[in-house]
Please model this.
Amino acid sequence: MVDDASEAGTPLDAPPEPTLEMLRHSAAHLMAAAVVELFSGAQYDVGPAIEDGFFYNFRLPDRAHFTDDDLPRIESQMRHLALRKVPFTPEVLSREEARALFERIDQPFKVDIIDRLPDVARFNVYRTGDFVDLCRGPHVPDSGWLDAIKLLRVAGVYWRGDERNEQLQRVYGTAWFTQEELDAFLQRLVEAERRDHRRIGRELDLFSFPDEIGSGLPVFHPHGGRVRRILEDYSRERHDAAGYEFVTTPHITKSDLFETSGHLQWFAEGMFPPMELDGGTQYYLKPMNCPMHILVYRSRMRSYRELPLRLFEFGTVYRYEKSGVVHGLTRVRGLTMDDAHIFCSREQMTGELTALLDFVLGLLRDFGLTDIQLVLQTRPEGKAVGTDEEWEEATEGLRSAARAMGLSLRVDEGEGTFYAPKISVETRDAIGRAWQMSTVQVDFLLPQRFGLEYIDSDGARHRPIMIHRALFGSIERFFGILVEHYAGEFPLWLAPVQCDLIPVQDDAPAVMTYIRELDGLFRAAGLRAHIDDRPGERMQARVRASEVRKVPYVVVVGKRDVERGDDVLTLRDNRRGGAQEQMQVAEIIDRLAAEVRERRPA
Model:
């Protein structure tokens, strides 16, 4: 992080070979230096390198705000500083020297950082010309390395992420080693905008976010509801075949349940406020399904013969996300998780984890997400419960299962949940963006807190291990990712309408009779057809509308087609530039049905 102080007394070593993160770290400093030069009295907070770029938070004099015209000015000043090849110069200061320095240059956010680190005796700072900042480093040697830069946008953020604090201005940018890399990234941004699921959702009439309902609470329209049903039905089919038992649990519960699970201690800020019912008893909207699945397990004594017990639910949960982070379908307040919890013995754990990861990866690949990496997230410092031995056993079980998949495994230290380490499955979409998808967690804690037991073959009581797993993460988020991955052009098996049936003359009774019969044949074969018989529209306009709605196929029927009586029609493939092929009706249906059955990619 750009703003963090180094460990007390740690000398500043010679910088290593520059990396992309180091380059962006340095670009954040350069941007702050440019802002301070252009806006007298500007105060800077924090500014780390992030994936694909960097940002810095500022307070401008008199609570002014950046405008769109300011970004080119700041960027121009950054380029001016880059041409001067200003060095990034490290220093080590005592606490008193560092505090006095930032008080003298009127940078209260830096003084606050120093004051929040009472045990640090010495602080690292870096100077870039007249600009100075608390910083661990390292940096590139000088600003001359920073010629492939671009400022992207301005956003409002609360100081230290707390909405009770004042709002600062955050400027985002990106930096690359070469102009070619920068140009390619900017083109990806253009493509990402084209694929934005919020825009496509409106255009294809898939879902909406009515103001009357509230932020982060989507409504799925018929076409979106159809795609969602396909996702859910296929998932149910696969879970049924894999030996999962289906359960259903309520949306609210007494507070006692989340006190026992620990969520009210560790996750309360992510929960909606309680409701008082039944004479003052507090009820909560559930943020997670796992405590209720535990109650299903605990409803009676279990035998070792029942293990592993795999419980599955499409369970809707509610998270109190701040309005500033709610984003379309990918960050919502009401979400439906394809949630599974597996209760097993210690001896069964490794086998269950391996089978589970195989199941997860196979299902993601069925939906066209094939670029996959596993991420092991370990015990968080200062926010974890359970013994060291339990955490080590759970972590090693996950590590062993991941290795068995033959995939690359990245370790994110300290990023597990308070009760368990986890493996996150990351996928890259069609334009290379990484998305966190499925999560798998090994949990020793909750079985202890709820006193779960089973009777083993020797008649003794043992405690099961609990494995948490959300495959899609949430239906809403997975839906949004698929929309962007396919740019709305779903493969045939997922498309809400698979084939438009279009009459050349909608005033010809024989043509309309034939088309309705054709629609019946499609439906009998399990295909989703749609008759476009809007009055007054020319055939060419209807075909164009089909392309805009991203319907994969079109069949056009005219009087001569009906009069010939040979059931030969023209199949038009919208996904391949309108390529056309004459085929028998039975062949058309067989071809589309095979494509659906084989779940061919778009």
Q: What stands out?
A: Residues 307 and 525 are 40 Å apart (CA to CA).
